[in-house]
Amino acid sequence: MTLKHCKLTFHQKSQQSQQKAYASEDLALCSKEFPTLKENDIVEIATTDDSSSSFLLKVTKGSLRDDFTPKDTISIDQAIGTAFQLKPYIDVTLTKVDAVCVELDSVELTFKDQYLGRSEMWRLKNSLTNSCVYHKKKIEFCSSTIRCQVHELWSGGLVVTSGLVTEATKIVFRSLTSMVYLFIQMSSEMWEFDICGDLYFEKAVNGFLSKLFKKWKSNGSNHEVTIVLFSRLYYEASSLERFPEAMRECLLTDYKGRFYEDFYRVVVQNEKYEDWRNTLISLRQVFVDYREYLLNFHQRKFPNIKVPKAYVSSAAQGNFLEVLNMSLNVFEKHFVDRSFDRTGQLSVVITPGVGVFEVDRDLTNVTMQRIIDNGVGSDLVCVGEQPLHAVPLLKFHNKATHHDVDDYSMPHWINLSFYSSNKQVGYATFVPRIKLPSLSDSSRETISVFSPQWRNPLASIHLGDESGWPNSVYDFDSYDDSIFKPSSSQLASKQRRIKHMKRPKTLVDSDFSRIFMRQNSEPEIHATTSTDMYSSTTSIATGSSSLILSSSTQPSSAITIPSKIRFRKSDNVYSSSFGALNIEPGSFSSVKPRVALTPINDRWIKEGTASGATKERHEGSSPSMSSHGGSPKELDFKGRFGNLRRPSRSLINPFDPSHAVIKLTSNRRRWTHIFPRGPSGTFIQQHHFSTGLNKLDIVPEGEATTAIGNTMNDGTHSLSRQSIKDSPDGSTRTKKVTRLWGATGEQEWTPALTTGVDWKSLTIPACLPLTTDYFPDERSLKTDYLVSDYSLLPDDVNADYISQRAIYRRPLTTKEVFFELVSQRLAQGFQTVIRPKHEKPPIKQQSSFLRLNILGIDDETEEYFLSIGRIFHQISLSSSTITVTRYRPRHPYPAIKVYYKYRFYAPNNNNFEVSYADFSTEKLENYNWNYLDHYICTRGDTDFALTENLKYWRFRMFILPINQVVLKRLMGEGVSPECNIYEPLKLEEKRSHIQEFLKFIETCINRIRRPNTSIPKGPRVNIVGASGGSVSSMGSGSFRERVNSNQLPDRPRIRSGSKLAEKQRHESASGRISPLDSPLDSKIFSLSGNLGEPFPDLTPLTFPPRTENTTEGELVPIMCLKADATFKDIVIAMRNQATGLSFIKVTGLELHPWTFVSYDAIMWLINRMEGVSTDSKAMEIFDGMLNERFIIHASGDSSHKFKNGFYIYYISNSDIEGMEPLIPHHDNGMLHNEWMEVDVPCECELNIDSVTKNSLLNFDCSSGNHKWKDVYVDVDTSRKSDRQEWGHIRYQSLFKPDEAFEITVQWIQATGSIITDLVQAWSRKAQQCNLQLVPVPTDPFALPNYSSDPLRGPIKLTIDSLTEGDAGDSSLTPSEVMYFQHTVALKFGFVRCAPHAPAALFHALKPNDLHYVHSSGNMFLIVPICQSVADVCFLWSWNYLVSKRWRISSNPALGDDTFMFKVLHDFKSFCANENNRLTNFWNSTVMNPQSPDVDETLLDSSLTSVPASETL
User: Fold this and answer.
1) What are the Cα distances from residue 757, in Å, to 157, 327, 1295?
2) Using CA atoms, how far apart are residues 482 and 463, in angstroms rounded to an integer?
3) Which end of the chain, N or C, is less surrounded by CB atoms within 10 Å?
4) Total-model pTM
5) Rounded-to-integer distance, Cα 1165 and Cα 1160, Å
6) Residue 343: which of 228, 226, 223, 225 has the closest Cα?
């Protein structure tokens, strides 16, 4: 109802605005002027002019204002006015509307340049429930860390501008920054011409790709793209012996015994471009000699050996499924090397074919299940003409030689598009949809399908047959019915089942030839073909079959039509099969014409009809046909035709798939909720349109079909797996059936249905929907599934773990744990199940969960149903108990693993190299959900550590020093043309890096601040105060405070006898933090700065500079301790408030008083004790104190040795006056999980400036001194999230200033955008410490291995001149060569790093290979161990994780393409010995007798990691 006419004003929406109290609301109005309005009402605001602009807003509590002074005026957010192009002070009408009438069916949200996990999507969806949205509305979540925008709104089958989001509204998330793989199939058709005279390659690149890139730019898409050209080469060879030995390593054979190889060339890899025109130019350049290069690839390698002739396969016979699986090998590891700049995964295959592929059945099973389980979008774009049969179509390899009947599958998991140019040939408007093969006269007589006497219909046209189409003597309808009818066992089963059904009419047997139910979960794939097949050679096959064309003719991609028999001209009969091919205009009738067949040319074919034949066969008689009104006669299929027996399993008819329905499964409904519903209530695909309709019109998909073949348009929706179901009142409930063809299963295929290009999917691909609507019925759950359950009591579990933690953290409540269990399953690919409406209780539902009152569950029970594949989870919350019920298939899919070999051409490489991959499905039922649920319940306790099988998210980084001096020479003015200008670090630089690194660890990871001091830089000195007293070099004895601790006032009651209670009792007895009371405490221990800041800036002290002539003794004018001081004297001096050691106190952390850091203590002792001038001497003294128990590690472990670095110890001796006895924790793991403790090298180790030639070979990447540690981290220190979040850090235990230091962030209970903010804050803080934090891949090189990325590989750089000229020396040892390569790498700015690869990749890494990362963070390098000088090389790889987000001002080279290619080009020139640079460098290093050498015992011979399982 219309409430009032009023003026419209705007206000600036702001959460912190103090000008207007309603500034945070979308709508503000005076409550006195609108007395009928109340909270949660929906109002429509419409303009009174002719623009007809209207939109909906929801009235909130803050919208109704008593202090709203303007009369007859309402105020809306200015962003809303801008979106609808409204002007202030215009006249509008305010109308109250019914909420039910404006509910939205689906909402599409787009987002860009951020990682949005499925958990975040679900929480965002819940936050939008019961709110109004409008087109282009900007939505923020998690304190604006997540940002998205409304793209499209659907209601009642129409696109609307605004509406109300309800619980039933489906939220579709679309990403503008996805990982996109574009695969271009370079089959033989690419060099053929289309009907417009263009090469199919030109149509694909100049047409489709050019238009796609333009749409990306116009829509603001910025995808991370990889473009791959792929081909399959067949060889004309009958045996393996005809191939050279070196060529056999990559040869494969198909099911016909033909030899072939697959080739992949990556043109663009992990690139983001704003302008893709240069990429199109590169593709055209590659196309020029692509085919010639492939065909002569082996002949160039073996010029003196005869190589079998090769030819490029057709599109149908190409490596289509292999390509999809290679991308899936990358996509299924999306949680590794998690990028923060993108969300979504999409594979796009561009083919010149028509959507028909010959495939292996096992590989199809693997591909289908992997695509569905991983939720990956797969698009197939065909630039060929759309055929007259249903596509996409997969023809299975017929491996049994005695079976000649072809079997097909229509994959619903592939989104098909057909691209057609707008060109016209002359004035013609007809677009042919069949490509006729050109046959030579010599081959026409050899073409046969059924028998030598039967000629191919295509051949008869070329032979001048005037009585060709449509006067076909062979009844195609009868042939189709005989092939595609169900088996006798199926019919008998259906007849038995139908007798027990209550139905209004008796079903005739002939109806089952049109509607039949499949028996397997994915019948078109998983059902096995029976051995009882036709004995003749009849087939419905792709044109690539050798039965269609001779071996000398290139195969075609069209479906072969069965051969015809010529009619007499007097026989006016037509085949409805040909009618469906647009041969006869009047053939679209739904009634099949009856065909009278008479014996012609000794071919005895009886008269009859298709329906009659079907009926007779159902009755158990022999196959027969009857004429209209006549008696049936026997049809003789023997003699010339052979014994044509019907197979035991119904096959798929590609020319008429609309009547084939299948059993509904969760796989079939996994993606349907991304499609909007049309006016009829069915899901629609907007790129499907019927012939004769405008392409802009939306064609509704599908009609509901009953079991008797009738259709209805009521739009009802049901998810029962049977087409007929009895209702309680005895009536028959009509159900929708799931059709075999199409992505939704609701659309009926007809030849008039034309498929365009799904530009929306290719431009802004959708993420896997959060919801689905399939759940097995009760009978299926009992017979087909295994049921198991377990219960969680979060309160009881947390009561046991809370007292064991060093830092108190508020435990998750039972309700929080319940929602997190659902959230974690969604994050792993599950979907929430929306149950049918008739199963919902009458009460109003909340969010996306159901309140049920069945099976004895009380009204307060909350339940979620979730599914992935054939696995279903039911999570229920009742009181304080959470119950998880799991349904697993009783007979899971068999484990299939396909091993694959191929040739791969990496970017910047110059050759195809052999690589490997394996494709296998994942056993989702083996995921340890019980373990993960307890991990969530205990907030990541050490008893439930993250393991690889949990598929947790991780992000690997290196901490590298910044060499700004060299960068200026390479990038600034006066740029150096050569890049080998890096020098080894000096001793002072190493000291500085150590101190800066420890400062970074303090402030970022451990979050400790020093308000008035910092770790001294440069030399270790004493600071002399104004009064002449000695002041500690670590500052004025001030304590350090932990920033943003988790201390909360609502600590629960601690159980008696726990460590926490004992500690509280001790602190209350002492009543102080420091053991000494002093009036100076307020000054000495005062804190400055805001503790709410995560990383406050540090103000370092000024120390006197150290010159080259300054000695250590000159810098220590005053000593506090004599050389013979006892341990007790040292402890007393450490406690001195004026010159003592700086202790730390962390709020919320259960630490002892007098706790200090080992590096601080060593620096303090060097500057305060006579005779102690090195850290080794200081460590010796502290070791003695530790043995005498004067000090002890903070964990209470008395066996923990004293180490130099960031280690926490405390003073524990109670014999000293003024010190109270302390109770050690004796909990070794408590502090290890709370603090990041790192070793740093001693002074003597820093003096080592070189390595020996032999020491480089004395380490193994599977073992070494480098250990890995884990630490708990609070990722959400600013409390931006709507839930409690945490993560873990995995790091190296030893920091070396001349090597990369690795840090890996791991999380499973954290928001991606919050992790992004945390890591970016670390990166900014690292710059203040003259360091840089660089993201690095877990597997940077992707060496050929079954577990590595199949579409990446290193660049091989050879050093040819080591075996020639002055540098050549046959007596060189591998150690000398590796030493030389090591020095070359250092000279070009590379530093050593540890290959912390997963255990699955370790066997791909040779144990003695040297790994490096460039100091700029852009490149990686491997020096492989070589057995001979001729094999010496480098392996080069790019850091593809570096993006604009990581570029920093202090290192402009990071992510700079110009700098990266400059270094690579100069490195290649150096290895090629241009201007004798390599020779001169060789003579100055390896051949130089003065080359520095040191004792091998001083070297770290193990610079790489240990297996991931070996941790402290």
Assistant:
1) 21, 22, 54
2) 30
3) N
4) 0.78
5) 9
6) 223
